[in-house]
Write a structure and sequence with these properties.
The protein has 350 residues and is an alpha/beta fold. The protein folds into two domains: 4-179, Rossmann fold, CATH 3.40.50.300; 197-334, no CATH class. The chain starts with a helix and ends in a 16-residue tail after the last helix. It has helices at 4-12, 20-34, 57-67, 77-90, 97-106, 122-138, 160-173, 201-216, 247-252, 257-266, 283-298, 311-315, 324-334, and strands at residues 46-51, 72-76, 111-115, 141-146, 174-179, 197-198, 224-228, 231-235, 237-238, 242-246, 269-275, 302-307. The longest helix is centred in the middle third of the chain and has 17 residues, at 122-138.
């Protein structure tokens, strides 16, 4: 298992000198993996890292996760929910179907890391509460990163009280660390060699066509009907690695995070075209766009956008969806040299 010095060394190779909260997290994560808890009266079984976007939560956790030698699994929270719900559909009726499915899912897992943990609705709250109960009973070590402090989970006043037992369990069983650094590591990076976001649309049209042909050639440049989450999806073009579709097809139409998980699994990059920024003022459309960015970022996929006006300026100040500040932070990184993506072969992952 890694020690603190080795983790710091790996972060230094990426130009990161850990601040105080990151150092605290490194110490807690190393102690968790080593099975010790020198500073706590009661043993802790997890680490909960929370704070504003871009403060290095995923960076620190991913570094420790890569160095860990135990049986481990790391995934985005959307992906976890999809897997559990699929298993629940096929699970025979019983007194505790969710507990049974949780045990099956956790079989063989010693270390579990959830990125971007959140709870916004009561159905997810119920599922997550029972899952955490099961994981802790089995002795699984758990690491969560979140933009929300435990007390801010499921903030809806109609349901918050029903989630309080799970919140108290997190505070009792996890070392909770607030990443409070002033720097957002995703902003201020050097621009990528190839621009990713284009506006207005007449400028975007030729630029996006050139990007598609750069990766796929001109042979695949024709409309095609694809399938996402079991439903047809019309695309402008799709090659072996890169797909090209209009924003209204993917985010204005009634789609879900299941669609975006399927697309991120099938392609290494997405061209999102004809984005009219006025559409983002609709909360459902904005939420779908946030899900899409989250999922493609988590899978380290490339994202190219053609819009009628600069996308970041259009997003600033909008309301009506969860986690918009994280989206802005991630979009900044996705168009920088620091963002390693599978389309360019800088990351060799499925």
């Amino acid at each position: 298992m890694p020690d603190e010095a080795r983790v710091v060394e790996h972060l230094a190779a990426r130009g990161i000198a850990p601040d105080a909260s990151q150092q605290q997290a490194i110490a807690a994560l190393v102690a968790l993996l080593a099975g010790r808890d020198d500073k706590q009266a009661a043993p802790r079984q997890g680490v909960y890292c929370h704070g504003l976007p871009g403060r290095g939560k995923s960076l620190v956790v991913d570094t420790v996760f890569e160095l860990a030698t135990c049986s481990k699994r790391r995934l985005h929270f959307h992906e976890f929910l999809r897997e559990i719900n699929r298993r629940l559909v096929n699970e025979p009726r019983g007194d505790d179907r969710l507990g049974s499915v949780s045990k099956q899912w956790l079989d063989g897992v010693t270390l579990l890391c959830f990125d971007e943990f959140h709870v916004h609705d009561i159905a997810d709250a119920f599922l997550m509460g029972r899952f955490l109960d099961t994981a802790l009973e089995l002795g699984v070590r758990i690491v969560l990163t979140s933009n929300y402090a435990p007390d801010a989970l499921l903030s809806d006043p109609e349901f918050h009280e029903r989630f309080l037992p799970t919140i108290e369990q997190i505070k009792r069983a996890f070392t909770v660390i607030h990443f409070d650094g002033a720097r957002d590591y995703r902003f201020g990076g050097e621009d990528a060699e190839l621009p990713h976001f284009f506006a207005p649309l007449d400028v975007a049209a030729e630029a996006l066509k050139a990007i598609f042909e750069r990766y796929e050639g001109s042979e695949s440049l024709q409309p095609v009907t694809l399938t996402a989450a079991g439903r047809p999806l019309a695309a402008r073009a799709a090659g072996a690695a890169l797909m090209w579709a209009d924003f209204d097809t993917l985010c204005v139409a009634s789609r879900s995070h299941h669609d975006y998980l399927d697309l991120a699994h099938a392609w290494h990059g997405l061209i999102l075209d004809n984005l009219h920024t006025a559409w983002l003022a609709t909360s459902h459309t904005l939420q779908r766009f946030i899900w899409l960015v989250d999922i493609f970022y988590d899978r380290k996929r490339a994202l190219f956008i053609g819009s009628d006006a600069p996308i970041e300026a259009a997003l600033n100040g909008l309301e009506g969806a969860h986690d918009l500040s994280r989206t802005l932070s991630r979009l900044a990184e996705m168009q920088s040299r620091a963002y390693r993506n599978t389309l360019d072969g800088s990351l060799n992952v499925a």
